[in-house]
Design a protein that fits this description.
45 helices
Length: 978
């Protein structure tokens, strides 16, 4: 079995090629091979299959493609385990000798391990022998092209290293041809030039060595406006003076391997006498964009299979598209000796340029004037293409608006290429490759800002500089405006500008200097949008700085579906498609400055329209939270009767797709859950606020997200208390009480639960009253007040039974069994446990059944039947693990450890207790973690391992001391789950 991606994609099993049914299977295989023996996430596979605009069925289509790939591999004899399903993705399992990439990396690693130059060179030659051409040359995917470019660069780096070692070994004659070919392929590579000069000099070809230097010097001066670096200039001088040290080499110990045959030199045609040079001036302080520049360079000047005749750089207003394309075009100039045409199509201006006029301008640049220019658009386009057919020219089309404006300006010649900037996707252009340009990285933004403002000013106030960049959102236009203001006001401190732009309400007014303005740049894009898209953008701005799912546009506009409007905003680069989440759903975001513009636009809308739009979105959130919670393990003490907040449903098929994996959906929307609560509070919707906060509590409980839980509840609690919403306050206080119990903060739990109890009694909320009393009973039991705990459980059970609440009754029946067990009344405990088990099974509540079995196990153990206890615990643990309930699984492992500890079976008890302690530690449960370490210490002591016993008991005591400090008591509490 052999796979390859260092060249055309290759898959062979038992001597025959594996058939791949179309490009999708090829892309899936390539994506898996690049990350062999690692999980490849579903969102990565979606990105590989669709460069952008993945369909709603993307995840299903990826799954189908992988299934088909598995069938084809299996039909050729591959084992079924070759591609395995992992959480959130897939993984292909290969040995080193089964994939050329793994073999390549292995030989590079072997080189690093060797110290002898001969052995290092041999390892690198073996690594280079793994290559069959440029990586993945026949697998079209923008995502894969980036990986292929990275691999190709690694190949070149390996080749450079190998040639340098062989040159030091005295193999100068053998490496000359390979170095010359490398320099032709990378004409700015000073390291390759340096090695070639040394090799030629050692072959007594001093004149040719000096010619290499002179050609490189002219190339750098003409194309980049720079001189060779100091090391190369020094080498040039040493050759001129015949420095004898240049002939020194490392003695070779083994024969040299045969160097690969040098490719034939590239033959270029004669340059035009008067090439067209229309590119605008390059930006002198251009920074970063390394990946984008490399991608453009590869598309314009790479090998034929990878070359693209049309490259479209797409991005939002002010992101730096024109600067990037101008810089990239100048770097690519050597590949287009007949010159560069530059045409500004002005699509975002009041008067976009007509393609016929643009063709006339291009023809005049090509020396066609007056009556020689045809009148019709098609005739002009035909003449334009004819003039370029034998030329190698780069055409730059700046600020394009739509495909019809661009198509007549595309040359048909193979030697020509086109670079386009646009704020919208131009998907109708044949053979076009799109590069989505985002804002600068943090480091690039700081470099640009420092370069304009001056290093000393930035170093004096580094925190202010960071704050200014935050306000600019790393948008190049905003950074240039802010930097320009500071440059023109040398007496200003950075603090002055930061204070003026940190207020969002005046930020856009401040980010203006001369003709440059962020607001004006965004408004140019807005003029091209239909009215419903502008309205959607303004309302999206009100949702805050969040990464949002696409469905929000529908309720904002009061429509069943807002996908078409959202696509318009994405195509206009005003809303950015940032990622695809683990469920395969796309995620969108507004740049902060565009969001600020959107909020300004929304200010003109009626207040009632804005409030209604917000309520519609929040009511969908509430419905989805409810649907997701219904699919999680039952909420138990967190269950609360719904309030009166409005609920709005998405189509069942859509909502069902979102919540089919409820934990995955909650994980994807985790930040938005808190954002929705804050939005409800900000808009005075206290009922929505408390229901959203309380609705997420089951998820927070399941994932042990205590900070999120507390933050959301406190936000909503302030709102409901201010509004006098006593029912909402009682639910939130009860949720906080449960949270404090988990965190071993029993005094705070008591205060919150007593407040909740009083509100429930005043409002006649029987379920809330029963739950609050039951949770107070937990506090009493954990703190050792057993009689009080029993009294409270009985009281809570009476309330629940009287109200006919079977769910709470089943839960409290189990609690009664626990209390009777603690009193030593084993028969009564069994009766309560049997009743609770029957009630839970009648309700179809598998989680509650597992909880009762876990509690029941203690009774079996007390009666001297540890095998039955372990059977119950095994069933319970299986259920909890299937439901991914880590906390209940930890409680169960603690019980397993107790049972084995009672048998003095240290070998089985300790692993279970260590696992439980790790889970308790991750969830912040100090009480039960301490219990685990104490039991482990006791087992150590009984086994005579006194050093370990001291260590583990000390760890338990430190945890108990922490709990004591939190609750102002020195008495260690009992475990919260007996």
């Amino acid at each position: 079995m052999r796979f390859g991606l260092l060249g055309p994609l290759h898959a062979q099993i038992a001597g025959r090629a594996v058939p791949l049914n179309g490009p999708r299977q090829a892309k899936m295989l390539a994506a898996l091979l690049i990350d062999a023996n690692n999980t490849v996430a579903m969102e990565r596979l979606v990105a590989v299959m669709w460069d952008r605009n993945a369909p709603a069925t993307a995840v299903r289509q990826v799954q189908d493609a992988v299934s088909g790939l598995r069938r084809n591999l299996g039909a050729c004899g591959a084992p079924a385990s070759l591609i395995s399903t992992r959480r959130g993705g897939y993984e292909i399992h290969l040995d080193q000798d089964q994939l050329d990439l793994l073999e390549f990396e292995h030989e590079r690693h072997v080189c690093e391990q060797h110290t002898a130059p001969v052995e290092k060179a041999a390892a690198l030659r073996r690594a280079l022998a793994c290559w069959r051409g440029n990586a993945l040359v026949d697998t079209p995917s923008q995502a894969l092209e980036i990986d292929a470019a990275r691999l190709n660069e690694r190949r070149v780096a390996t080749q450079r290293q190998c040639l340098a070692i062989e040159l030091d070994l005295g193999r100068h004659r053998e490496v000359i041809d390979e170095l010359a070919a490398l320099l032709r392929e990378h004409p700015y590579d000073e390291q390759a030039a340096e090695h070639l000069m040394v090799a030629l000099y050692r072959c007594r070809r001093q004149g040719e060595a000096l010619q290499v230097y002179e050609r490189l010097r002219r190339t750098l001066a003409d194309e980049l406006g720079v001189d060779p670096a100091a090391p190369l200039r020094e080498l040039h001088q040493r050759i001129l003076t015949a420095d004898p040290d240049l002939t020194a080499t490392i003695p070779a110990q083994v024969p040299s391997p045969t160097a690969p045959q040098s490719p034939a030199p590239t033959v270029t045609g004669p340059a035009m006498a008067l090439p067209v040079r229309q590119l605008p001036h390059d930006v002198p302080d251009f920074v970063g964009r390394t990946d984008a520049l490399a991608e453009i360079a590869g598309l314009l000047g790479g090998p034929a299979p990878n070359r693209a005749p049309v490259v479209v750089v797409v991005g939002g207003p002010g992101v730096g598209k024109s600067c990037l394309v101008t810089h990239a075009a100048r770097l690519a100039g050597a590949g287009f000796p007949d010159g560069q045409l530059y045409l500004d199509l002005a699509a975002t201006s009041d008067q976009p340029r007509d393609p016929g006029l643009m063709l006339a301008e291009a023809l005049r640049a090509l020396s066609i004037t007056g009556s020689a220019i045809p009148n019709g658009l098609s005739e002009r386009a035909a003449l334009y293409r004819s003039l370029l057919v034998d030329r190698r020219m780069l055409v730059v089309l700046d600020d394009a608006g739509h495909a019809d404006q661009v198509l007549p300006l595309l040359p048909g010649a193979e030697g020509c290429a086109v670079l386009i900037t646009s704020r919208t996707l131009l998907t109708q252009l044949p053979g076009a490759r799109h590069i989505d340009l985002d804002v600068l990285s943090r480091a690039e933004a700081r470099e640009l800002f420092t370069g304009i403002v001056g290093r000393r000013r930035v170093e004096r106030e580094p925190e202010e500089a960071d704050a200014i960049l935050d306000c600019c959102g790393n948008l190049p236009l905003a950074i240039r405006i802010a930097s320009g203001k500071l440059t023109g006001r040398p007496a200003w401190s950075l603090r002055v500008l930061r204070e003026r732009i940190e207020d969002e309400s005046r930020r856009l007014a401040e980010l203006r200097i001369g003709d440059l303005s962020v607001r004006a740049s965004v408004e140019l894009s807005l003029r091209l949008l239909p009215a419903d898209a502008v309205r959607a953008l303004s309302l999206l701005g009100l949702l805050g700085p969040s990464t949002l799912p696409g469905w929000v546009v529908g309720p904002l506009l009061d429509r069943p579906d807002g996908d078409e409007v959202l696509d318009t905003l994405v195509d206009a680069s005003l809303v950015r498609l940032t990622a695809t989440d683990a469920l395969g759903e796309p995620r969108y975001r507004l740049h902060d400055l565009i969001r600020t513009c959107a909020v300004e636009i929304a200010a003109s809308l009626p207040a009632e329209d804005k409030r209604d739009a917000i309520i519609r979105v929040l009511s969908v959130w509430l419905d989805l939270v409810g649907r997701g919670t219904d699919r999680l393990p039952p909420a138990g003490v967190l269950a609360a009767a719904p309030g009166t907040a409005p609920r709005r449903s998405l189509p069942d098929a859509v909502a069902g797709r979102f919540t089919a994996d409820p934990l995955g959906w909650f994980d994807a929307e985790r930040a938005n859950l808190l954002g929705a609560v804050k939005l409800a509070v900000d808009w005075g919707q206290d009922e929505l606020a408390w229901e959203l906060a309380a609705g997420a509590a089951t998820y927070y409980d399941h994932r042990c997200l205590y900070q999120d839980w507390q933050h959301g509840h406190r936000l909503a609690l302030e709102a409901v208390e201010a509004a006098g919403n006593m029912h909402g306050a009682s639910v939130l206080l009860r949720g906080l009480g449960q949270l404090y119990i988990y965190q071993d903060e029993f005094d705070r739990a008591t205060r919150a639960l007593e407040s909740s109890l009083g509100l429930c009694q005043d409002g006649g909320d029987k379920r809330g009253e029963a739950l609050s009393v039951a949770m107070l009973a937990t506090v009493s039991r954990v703190q050792g007040r057993d009689d009080e705990a029993l009294e409270r459980v009985e009281h809570a059970l009476a309330i629940a039974t009287g109200a006919g609440d079977r769910v709470v009754e089943a839960q409290l029946s189990c609690s009664m069994g626990v209390m009777k067990l603690m009193q030593g009344k084993l028969d009564e405990a069994q009766s309560w446990f049997d009743g609770a088990l029957g009630q839970a099974r009648a309700l179809g509540d598998d989680h509650r059944v597992a909880v009762v079995l876990r509690r029941y196990s203690r009774l079996h153990d007390r009666r001297g039947d540890p095998d039955e206890a372990l059977r119950c615990l095994g069933q319970a643990l299986t259920t909890f693990e299937e439901l991914a309930d880590e906390r209940c699984a930890a409680y169960t492992l603690l019980e397993v450890g107790r049972v084995y500890a009672g048998r003095y079976d240290r070998d089985r008890a300790s692993p279970a207790l260590v696992r439980a302690a790790a889970l308790f530690h991750r969830h912040g449960d100090r009480q039960d973690e301490a219990t685990c370490w104490q039991l482990i210490g006791d087992l150590d002591a009984a086994a005579g391992a006194h050093h370990l016993a001291h260590q583990h008991r000390g760890r338990a005591q430190r945890l108990w001391n922490t709990i004591g400090d939190l609750n102002a008591t020195k008495t260690p509490a009992r475990p919260s789950s007996p």
